[in-house]
Amino acid sequence: MIEQIEEGANMKRDKKKKPHKLRKRILTALLFLLLMGLIALSALLYAPITALSSLEKVDDYPLYVMRYKGEYFFDFFAERGVEWGPYKRIYEKLNPEACTSFAALAPDANAVFGRNFDWKHRSSLLLFTEPPDGYASVSMVDLFYLGLDGLHEIPWARRINLLGAPYATIDGMNECGVAIAQNAVPRRNTPKDPNRPTLLNSQIARLVLDHAKDVDEAIALIRQYNIEFADTPVHFHIADASGKSAVVEYIDGGISIVRDDKPWQVSTNYLFSEALQPKCWRYEKAAESLAESQGGKSADEAMSLLQSTSQDHTTWSVVYNLTTGQTSLVLGRNYDHVHTFKLKARKQRR
């Protein structure tokens, strides 16, 4: 009888302990999940916070430099395209106009790509990116399109805008020696395939820099997307370190590819695909110079050519050396002050 009473008491104590043990296990599990969540959040925020912390002003024009190593989710957005609401609202303003680009691709010299960005805004960003699933690159961004034009200092409260910089690419070069620039042209009908996502022209440039190892691969990537011009339409000038160059144009509801037939190619602001091609003094001057040198230009010579084709509203002149990875950059036509930067090359160039 006594044993039965003791057994009953033990059972009551065990019943009291079970809810306590259950609560302890639940609390432990919740704390573990919270810890994992904090670790994941820290990992997610590490790249953008580090990028914003790296911002440095290197020219009073002004020019800023930022290094973004890590995930900025371009592939996620590219799969959805600009029809995805948040994407379209944020990036609806890009509007590059009236620019000159050229590729100097002589086989016995370094391949160089020169580009004047002729536009009315001053504040510029040189952006280094290194995505986990893409190629490292250097690119130029007009800070007007991130709401940061005219700021000689960017306070931390405004730096959050800079996280959109990878999506606002004007021109650039990746570690494989692929360069791309966009130049304004007359508006024509563009492809509209309902089964393909749509990107803005700035995101097409980012697509190429992140994922193309040569001109042919860049063209193949571009064909997978519709394009939307928020305002001014453009064509793309693309060149690579192997000596290939092409201009990609949107015309008659399709895509036209104009490849180089010489060791150089120039692009300004008219459509090569149309029979009527108006005169452009910048095109003629660049083409004449490149023909004389048979496509051979050093970085200094390329910058001199950009100077001779610059205009009163040239915001920047940039020379990308596709062979060495060096970037030479001038702000506001101050050709006595050339900034140089180096993109680390992991891929084999010619």
Summarize the structure.
This protein has 350 residues and is of the alpha+beta class.
Task: Give an overview in words.
The protein is α+β, with helices and mostly antiparallel strands and 350 residues long. The protein has one domain: Penicillin V Acylase, Chain A, CATH 3.60.60. 31% of the residues lie in helices and 27% in strands. A 9-stranded mixed β-sheet has the order 1-2-5-6-7-8-11-12-13. β16 (326-331) and β17 (339-342) form a beta hairpin. α5 crosses α6 (215-222). The relative contact order is 0.16.
The outline comes out as globular
Alpha-carbon Rg, integer: 27 Å
Q: Mean pLDDT, nearest integer? A: 87
How many structural domains can be distinguished in the coordinates?
1
Oligomer: single chain
Question: Superfamily at the CATH H level?
Answer: Penicillin V Acylase, Chain A
- Give the DSSP E fraction (strand runs of 2 or more residues): 25-35%
At CATH level 2, the architecture is: 4-Layer Sandwich
SS summary, helix count: 8
Helix content: 25-40%
Going by helix content, strand content and strand pairing, the class is alpha+beta
CATH class designation: Alpha Beta
Total strands: 17
CATH topology: Penicillin V Acylase, Chain A
Quote the distance from N terminus to C terminus. Answer: 95 Å
Helix-strand pattern:
HEEHHEEEEHEEEHHEEEEEHHEEE
How do the strands of the widest beta sheet line up side by side?
A: 1-2-5-6-7-8-11-12-13
Low-confidence stretches: 38-43, 87-97
- Major sheet description: 9 strands, mixed
